[in-house]
Design goal:
It is a single chain. With 697 residues, this protein is α+β, with helices and mostly antiparallel strands. Helices cover 35% and strands 23% of the residues. The chain has 18 helices and 27 strands. The strands form six sheets. Strands 17-16-21-20-19-18-27 form a seven-stranded mixed sheet. It has a five-stranded antiparallel sheet with strand order 10-9-8-7-15, with no helix packed on it. Strands 22-23-24-25-26 form a five-stranded antiparallel sheet, covered by helices on one side. A hairpin with a 5-residue loop joins strand 16 (528-531) and strand 17. It is elongated. The model is unreliable at 61-110, 338-346 and 411-415 (pLDDT under 50).
């Protein structure tokens, strides 16, 4: 429902901006541009209100204060001790087995959300608005068609002489007071019956006016306006636009008629409009096309008839320019989607929690972190598996949940990622919603169903399927469940099928998870293959690295290292920082595991500045011609930079700016740099034996 509301608001805001643009252009157009151009430019606005496609633009947002993260204490449910579970004696089949399972409270029915109520209100009012217009038009059309009579011979002769084709008919009725067009698929021009008749010249002009409506399918145009007004009934600008379109419709038809009239005949046409406006009128539905609808707009139409002049070449050029400008603007849509995490002025609410898990995982002392899930920070089955975290919107509310565990692993030849903890945001703060351990496993299926397998180790196993729902008590709604031995041997096949439906989640490993292969290299006990400038792979030991950067300096050394996934492939790299005298003029070496080998990729000292946890960093060129933000990529050419934000300079002065490969203004460039600054910094560790063994254990 939230996505529906965001799409609706995006469309109404985009259409309103385009509508205001046309208002600003009207003084420029004036009488220089044909009225038909003004009339059809509104069509672009109507389509902008209807079609949720286009080039996204983001409106500037006011800076929001950064909320301080407050960790909430989470009381973890008691679970069976792992050691006791392992050593539990086997109970004979003749004895009943009783397993202490936490009582699951049946969740209450979730309340109707505010977005759902708003969508219901929008649909109800919009449907009522549209149906009211349909009913009004159907009632009027039925009344008029029931009273139709053949036209007079004089009117029919004039009508036949205008070359209207066979689609439009002519009739007269006592239910109308002015000539009008009625119907879409069976259009009929209805003349008033009784009262003073129009002079032949005025009658011919009136018929020509209504035939113009029929030829341009103006009634369909009006129904399109009604549809837009029904969808955006809450936007007053849409209703004003509908009245403006109706006036422009009549003005353009008047212009089409007077184009073929002499000046004195134009005056007669204006007199006819005055004559029709003076008659006592009857209400007619908005979708009909009467010749004279509202007297208060008559002045505008008379001035348009009096001031008509044929468009020249300048008017045609202006028409093309305006049409192109409006068409380009109509292809843009305001983007109201939630901004990505770590945007300027925002912080990641999960970041402090992740930092705490990272530290706890490195220390392997769960007793020091009672509020964290011990199966994540000190897994019973060891650290041979990648442990980390992933983000996934489980309930479709636009806010991502944090999933921790063996995400993205291959374990027992299964590709699902076992999830041991799920955090969700409550009032902007992370709260532990779901907890598992090695005998209480969760996987996530493609459709975000949580599949659970719980085993007591004493001959009883249960399988569940849950829907994650933050509004439910306990955050889970049970969809299905089976158990063994209660449900027989078939329960095993059903439960294993549920667990096999788990998907491999894109994850970020914790530091030290899956990086054991680097330990011997960092301790200087094993070589790595350093890729030199010619592409050759030279076996190198860590103490030899400084010589590649400062061969004549005895002060150069590898001082720090960072462990993170640089290229987003799920495997971690090690970045070594080489410094020289006064911690300056060194460089970097990236260690990367490729198959059974550890490869080393040197990089100059103007890279890997302000390294972030997502692998992005600041770079610059020594000649002062370019700087920006980039990511590391590895391929046949070794280590290359994928540039996300770039500033081209000349004589150390900014010359051009790019973001994601497209030219931008300096303001947009600075905004992108500001967003980069808000990202979490990678942690640099001092290169010593203690840190190496602890971080790569």
């Amino acid at each position: 429902m939230k996505e529906v509301l965001l799409t609706l608001l995006s469309l109404t805001l985009s259409g309103s901006l385009l509508c205001m643009l046309l208002l600003l252009l009207r003084p420029v157009m004036g009488n220089r541009v044909p009225r038909a151009v003004s009339y059809y430019l509104w069509l672009a606005v109507l389509l902008r209100f209807l079609i949720p496609l286009g080039y996204g633009i983001t409106l500037p947002q006011l800076p929001q204060p950064t909320q301080e993260m407050v960790r909430q204490e989470t009381v973890l449910p008691e679970r069976q001790d792992q050691t006791d579970t392992q050593t539990a004696p086997i109970t004979p089949p003749s004895e009943p087995v009783t397993v202490d399972q936490p009582e699951i409270t049946q969740p209450s029915a979730p309340a109707i959300s505010l977005p759902g109520m708003l969508v219901f209100l929008w649909l109800a009012v919009g449907a009522g608005f549209f149906l009211w217009h349909i009913a009004a038009y159907a009632r009027f059309s039925r009344r008029v068609r029931a009273s139709l009579a053949p036209p007079t011979a004089e009117a029919l002769a004039l009508f036949e002489g205008l070359g209207h084709g066979s689609r439009v008919r002519l009739a007269q009725s006592a239910q109308v007071d002015a000539p009008m067009l009625l119907g879409v698929f069976r259009p009929v021009i209805v003349l008033p019956q009784g009262g003073p008749s129009l002079p032949p010249q005025a009658l011919a002009a009136a018929l020509r006016h209504e035939l113009t409506h029929a030829r341009r399918w103006d009634i369909c145009y009006k129904w399109l306006v009604v549809l837009v007004a029904s969808l955006h009934w809450f936007n007053p600008l849409v209703h004003w636009m509908g009245r403006r379109i109706a006036l422009d419709c009549e003005l353009s038809c008047d212009e089409a008629v007077v184009r073929a009239l002499a000046p004195e005949q134009r005056m007669a046409y204006g007199d006819m409009l005055l004559l029709l406006a003076a008659r006592p009128g009857r209400p007619s539905p908005w979708m009909a096309a009467p010749l004279c609808q509202e007297g208060k707009r008559l002045k505008t139409r008379l001035l348009g008839i009096k001031g008509y002049r044929r468009p020249g070449k300048a008017a045609i050029c202006l028409t093309l320019v305006l049409g192109l400008a409006v068409a380009c603007c109509a292809c843009t849509v305001v983007d109201l989607e939630p901004q990505p995490r770590a945007a300027a002025g925002e912080s990641d609410p999960y970041q402090p929690l992740l930092i705490e898990y990272e530290l706890a995982f490195l220390q392997q002392q769960p007793d020091l972190y009672p509020d964290l899930v011990s199966a994540v920070i000190a897994p019973y089955w060891g650290q041979d598996h990648q442990l980390g975290y992933a983000r996934r919107d489980l309930d479709g509310d636009g806010s991502e949940e944090l999933l921790l565990g063996w995400v993205g692993n291959e374990f027992w030849n299964l590709d699902q990622g076992y999830v041991f903890a799920i955090y969700t945001l409550v009032d902007g703060q992370p709260v532990l919603a779901v907890e598992g351990w090695e005998r209480s496993l969760y996987v996530v299926s493609e459709d975000n169903i949580l599949c659970h397998c719980g085993s007591s180790g004493a001959g009883r196993t249960e399988w569940h399927q849950y829907r994650f729902d933050p509004s439910a008590e306990g955050f889970l709604v049970t969809l299905d469940q089976v158990s063994q031995p209660e449900d027989g041997e078939g329960a095993i096949a059903i439960g294993e099928g549920w667990m096999a439906s788990g998907v491999s989640l894109p994850y970020t490993p914790f530091a030290g998870s899956g990086v054991r292969a680097y330990q011997d290299v960092l301790l200087g006990e094993a070589p790595f293959l350093c890729v030199d400038g010619s592409g050759q792979e030279v076996p190198t030991l860590l103490p030899d690295i400084p010589l590649a950067f400062s061969p004549y300096s005895s002060y150069a050394s590898v001082t720090e290292f960072a462990i993170l996934d640089l290229d987003g492939d799920g495997s971690r790299e090690v970045v070594l920082r080489v410094t020289d005298v006064a911690n300056d003029m060194g460089g970097y070496v990236v260690l990367r595991q490729e198959g059974d080998e550890i490869m080393g990729y040197p990089s100059h000292w103007r890279t890997f500045w302000y390294l972030k946890t997502d692998g992005t960093f600041t770079y610059s060129y020594t000649a002062g011609t370019e700087d920006g933000i980039a990511s590391a990529r590895f391929g046949e050419d070794g280590l290359t930079l994928e540039k996300h934000i770039r500033c081209e300079m000349e004589a150390w002065e900014p010359k051009a700016f790019e973001v994601d490969g497209r030219p931008v203004s300096q303001t947009e460039y600075e905004a992108a740099c500001s967003a980069q600054d808000q990202k979490a910094d990678a942690v640099w560790y001092e290169l010593n034996e203690t840190n190496i063994k602890q971080l790569t254990a």
